[in-house]
């Protein structure tokens, strides 16, 4: 059975457990899902500095998986922001995507889309990522709510009402044809509130799982050769051992 490695760049084991549950449920028996938590960084990424550290954390997690002889057929970065996406894609040798990239692609199929996520500091970061991934024109707008993704995940009942209202407001305000509910900690909530939203609602975790299935079904994969070709200095032994 093909194996999907899901790297959680947050250091929160509860988020990793949530990813394991929802990604495995979404892929069913098509893939074996193995989730790995970053060894260092922030419990929940919510700003530029924690995002910067997470880039390193993702590469380190890949190195740990490599050292443990975990041989995935694809890698999904389990953070709606995709830290480490471009670096890991450069040398992993297997298809790599993240929750944001997968959700952008799924939402863009409907037309221009809006994003709803927790934490106002994510807005410029997601705008930058959308531009880098070629979705600068299809991103209609970003609606953030004050609680972070971690806080929303801790109060799912209260979060559903808040997020349903936010998704409706985003669809109307930005004239969006679809709305993304973005965040690893929000996995599964889109299904609970979708009926209240007037446009298709994309769960970023489900989108990531569906990307993995499609990537591994494709007969031709456009990936780089394995190896980063970097003479690392003063990094973890696992990262230093990568080719």
C-alpha Rg, in Å? 17 Å
Counted beta strands: 8
Determine the fraction of residues in helical runs and give it as a percent range. Answer: 40-55%
- Helix/strand class: alpha/beta
N-to-C series of helices and strands: EHEHEHEHEHEHHEHEHH
Low-confidence stretches: none
Task: Tell me the domain tally.
Answer: 2
Q: Within the largest sheet, what's the order of strands?
A: 2-1-3-4
The fold-level CATH name of the largest domain is Rossmann fold
Give your account of this protein's structure.
The protein has 243 residues and is of the alpha/beta class. The protein is built from ten helices and eight strands. The radius of gyration is 17 Å and the shape is globular. It starts with a strand and ends with a helix.
Kindly list the characteristics that best describe this protein.
243 residues, Rossmann fold, alpha/beta, 2 domains, 10 helices
């Amino acid at each position: 059975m093909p194996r999907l490695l899901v790297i959680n760049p947050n250091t929160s084991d509860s988020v990793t457990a949530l990813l394991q549950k929802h990604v495995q449920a979404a892929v069913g028996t098509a893939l074996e899902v193995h989730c790995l938590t970053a060894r260092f960084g922030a419990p929940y990424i919510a700003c530029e500095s924690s995002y910067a550290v997470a880039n390193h954390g993702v590469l380190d997690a890949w190195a740990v998986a490599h050292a443990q002889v975990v041989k995935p057929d694809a890698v999904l970065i389990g953070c709606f922001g995709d830290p480490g996406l471009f670096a890991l894609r450069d040398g992993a040798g297997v298809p790599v995507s993240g929750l944001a990239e997968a959700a952008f692609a799924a939402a863009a199929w409907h037309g221009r889309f809006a994003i709803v996520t927790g934490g106002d500091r994510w807005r410029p970061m997601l705008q930058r990522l959308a531009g880098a991934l070629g979705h600068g024109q299809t991103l209609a707008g970003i609606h953030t709510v004050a609680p972070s993704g971690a806080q929303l995940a801790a109060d799912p009942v209260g979060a559903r009402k808040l997020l349903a209202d936010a998704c409706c407001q985003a669809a109307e305000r930005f004239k969006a044809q679809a709305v993304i509910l973005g965040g690893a900690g929000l996995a599964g909530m889109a299904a609970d509130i979708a009926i209240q939203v007037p446009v298709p609602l994309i769960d970023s975790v489900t989108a990531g799982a569906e990307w993995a299935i499609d990537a591994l079904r494709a007969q031709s994969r456009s990936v780089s050769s394995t190896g980063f070709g970097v003479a690392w200095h003063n990094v973890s032994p696992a990262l230093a051992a990568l080719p």
